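Minutes, methods subgroup
Present: GH (chair), OT, SY

1. OT presented the first of two proteins processed in the latest run. Sequence and structure tokens recorded below as shown on screen.
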Amino acid sequence: MIAGLRNVSDDFFDDGIIRSYVEVFDLICKKINILHNDNERFFYFIDTDYVMDTTRGFRYENITPAYDKILTGGFRDLKYPDENTEFRRNYNMVCESICTLIMRIVKEMRCEDRKSTSAEVFMNMIDKPASHFEEAIQRMLFLNQLFWQTDHRLVGLGAWDSYLIPYYNKDIKEGILTRNDVIHILEDLFKVLHENYRYKSNVLMGDTGQIFVLGKSTIEGEYVCNDLTYLFIEAMKNVNQPDPKCLLRINKNTPDDLISLALDSISTGLGAPLLANDDVVIPCLTGFGISEEDACEYTTSACWEPLIGGKSACNNNRTPLNYLRALDNLFKRDDLENIKSFDEMLDRYLFYLGLNINAVKRVLKNQVFQNDILLSIFTYGCFENEKDVSAGGGLYGDLGITSVAMGNTIDSLYNIKKYVFDENKYTLFDVKRMIATDFEGQKEMFEELQRERSHFGCDDPDVITLTQKIMDFASEKLSDYTDNFGSRIKVGLSGAAYMDAARNFGASFDGRHKGDPFTVHISNESNEAFTEIINYASRLDYTKNQFNGNVIDFMVSPDFIKHNMEKMIGLIKGAVVAGFFEMQMNVVSSKTLIEAKKNPERFPNLIVRVWGFSSYFKDLPDEYKDVLIKRALENERKVA
């Protein structure tokens, strides 16, 4: 596969030739501008005028490289001892190109009279292991910027408390650093990662994928955390910016004070950390064929999809599955006269869902990824297998899809069951007419549907059974997929496309107008208590291939957590035991959101939770602001 550069100038090409990946990467390392950042502690830059062109094939995004590879040795230590194959030659050439860039940075540092220790830190990257806490962070930052420079999007940060704890312990023991020093170091780390916030944002401002993971569990179920686990959260809270993001892994043995610290951070409005339940996630991973050792080290890609950092090229967000489309197709294509019962209708719905899933599989089958030597160097398995990630070289390479509109589907089906089959108030043809015309002339019926309490997210055995039946059907239909490299498909109940996929989608019988957003993740603002949706989500089965992100999404008023901290700690601990998969909270009042939309200049730093990331409210399109306002009003039992 060939590659090029965006924004090509004569500095790079004077003959119009498109060069190979190795040649382009070498040109990047030799020619990009070494930019000066304002952070005195860390050196980090991205020359956005010259990034690798990955438009000729699918690029790898939603990735977390093996940062540890550059901690235990230098870039030259990663090379093959000989170059008797083309893969080895290309692999080694990319390592040498990185060393060329390092030497350019060292020269620039010495010219601008930066601290001599900064130049030494970069020199050591060539052929020495990291020896101190700050040096280890600088190495990880340098590798991170290389991935952004080569047009990888949504680059995860990995389990930084695990990576960095040996260097922290050494510097603390030797008196080089204090805990207070480390807080300031981590604050600078967050600030430097945030500097390119606008460039790094993918679909929406804040959608950077820069998520670091804290905490973990052993195979025996013991909880593992350390000083850095706490310090990272404290520093994140102090900086109070939407990026980078945080996921905290917890289990039934997580200390109360760590849960309290996480809730305190969430209550500031950061919406972070996202919580993941190891007691559920790890068994799902091992059940899918991931080793116990690797499953216990999982991180996440971009938002919430679990992956094995540094060992996966999983592409966990390839395409969304719209559960409502099958119901829409049923009304458009099926012979409604022959459907005499709700059970028959559900069978027809599943038939059309199967057709939609087959279409998803065809889309995935036709996706060809570009070769990616940099990612191959920092993905375990590629060196050993002498294969690029695009050729299946990584230890794990399964594909992940997200999903939308399960909530709209469940509520539509329940309303059809009630009004058509139970009460005989309408026929299926009447329903078809209403959704086809966007409820034109049916204002009373539309308002009645909106008054119906949402079934999705309710702790009702029948609702859970129906949801699970649809999930299991999708799981089974996806389970026979495999590509030339043995990749399988994972699916989950969370997805970022609840706005985009709904924009041109017709009305639905859950009381939704054409173009209105779909339900967000696993959410239901009409529930009287958080425990109801926790119980609902906890009773679903996420095993087999159904673990690609399943997020309970709450709206919480700002004072609620602080005034009920002990109850919230108990809620989280109870939710872990009940069996939730993942959980996030948006802590903001409707009054604040409404005011911030009207007068954004008064709320320049208001942070909200979107999809699986946090963002400044002022940076969001109005349609996203409106969804947050609507959900907050519903949560507060208010009318817009």
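2. SY then presented the second protein from the same run.
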Amino acid sequence: MCEEHNIPKVYDPASVEKKWYKFWEEHRYFHAEVEEGKDAFSIVIPPPNITGQLHMGHALDNTLQDILIRWHRMMGHNTLWMPGYDHAGLATQIKVEEVIKKEEGKTRYDLGREEFLKRVWKWKEQYGDRIINQLKHLGVSCDWERKRFTMDEGCSKAVREVFCTLFEKGLIYKGTRITNWCVNCNTALSDIEVEHKDDPGHLWYINYPVVEEEGRSLMIATTRPETLPGDTAVAVNPEDPRYGDLVGKTLRLPTTDRIIPIIADSYVDTKFGTGAVKITPSHDPNDYEMGIRHNLPSIVVIGMDGIMTKEAGKYEGMTREECRKAIVADLKADGYLVKVEEHSHAVGHCQRCGHAVESQVSTQWFVKMEPLVKAAVDCVEDGRTQFVPERFTKTYTGWMDNIRDWCISRQIWWGHRIPVWYCDDCGEMSASRTDLTVCPKCGSAHIHQDEDALDTWFSSALWPFSTMGWPDKTPLLKQFYPTSVLVTGYDIIFFWVARMLIMGMEFMHEIPFDKVFIHGLVRDSQGRKMSKSLGNGIDPLEVIDKYGADTLRFMLITGNTPGNDMRFYWERVEATRNFANKIWNASRFALMNMEGYDANAKLAPYTLADKWILSRLQHTAKSVTEMLEKFEL
């Protein structure tokens, strides 16, 4: 039947894997149609960014999903793996802006909004499928015929519906509050788009003279002297015996001609610095809250562009760094600077561009989270949705207990534009599911749409049901929602998992998935997170080209436990490649010994050896199934 020379002695994954993947696609083996009455199993892919390049995290995440999907297909279930990708608002805009600047020396403002968006769509058509093709290279068996995009017509319709419904319920509002602000990208950021890392810095100890007591000063310690012109109070802890007699008195603010009060607030940490802290409500979220509690004025001394404002006095026009040096020099010259200590502290950086983030007071759109959280917590606590491993339940509920309102507006052009129109004549503000041309209140044609776009995570929060046709009641939605499993890393439990649970419970009145299967990160051999800055990233495509997709996939899922990080070792890749070669040669040996075998011939009675082999096969199938059901892949 098979001669030895027809099967090479050494497994060549490149030729074998491409051949069979093409065969599977051509025969539509990955495609699922609705089959009523049949057990359904479904997964929605965590949508990669259209700007994305396949990395080891993608490789692990999609391998785990593929194992579950192929297993349920083998079980005969009606199995859907819904693929798609994310428009990645800020990341994509930055990418296209860089191209335009490099090729034409222009900015998006030179082109205007309409022309710039045409360029982004053109870029998306040219490069958007790159990450999809890379996933195919990995052997991923998604139902590619159903590929969705967060800005396609159906998903965009769902976004409008959700925004308008929440707006009408009073759960979306526009307000002026302190938010994270990237002075480089010129947009607001949500808390989870800010990466905190320890930066080497200093702690400056400064004396603020007490107005009522000549010769007495109150010493404060700060990591940000450049915000000093925006101070509107100094706070001490009411339980701190060192400063009890000073509460209610006032201080002369160094380098300015202002007088500020000394207040008592239990938030102050008595063990940090001197136990007395400068309060700058416009440039620190905790100071902002304290300012509200004590009715303090809020003075903006750092502009949206990172440049010191008129309110900064003689430091106006300086960058933050220039201002810091100038203020420290002035404090030293005037005798206010006591000492300087080395001090590393957590500084927020923009996840996209890496620049230090400012806390700025600005007018943004927010979602009221508190009324939406209960249902999303209840469904986890009562077991309708279960985290695997179970320990991540506490991580999820703990974060939800302390959730803040979600800032959903971004000062960017690429994305779902806020569907709100303002009337220039009567001042009416209207949210609409369709584009407006006249004011619904007074009929005026003098209206304009809000300039901001929605946070990218707003649309991906709807992913389990928007991809299946909601708000329309489609057969696909009826058959496959709620989905069976969500497979994702622990690093986006708050970015994505929490928000999908919130939106699923609010709009579908049902959980979006039964299980949340959490995996760890793939780190380098030293245990470090893979990153461009460290230069320690390993391209999965290079591993696949050299060793094959099966080798990479098998290496990624062996030797690690659910929810824990794993380390990438080239030695393990080599060992796995050798194992794949053993499987190949075992198959080759079996086929070489099937000369003359007739599949239609009457089977001889089973021998004892046959029965033993079949019993071992059944035992293995049972054991493997039990492991898969427990996510011990």
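Chair's summary of item 2: The radius of gyration is 30 Å.
Next meeting: continue with the remaining queue.
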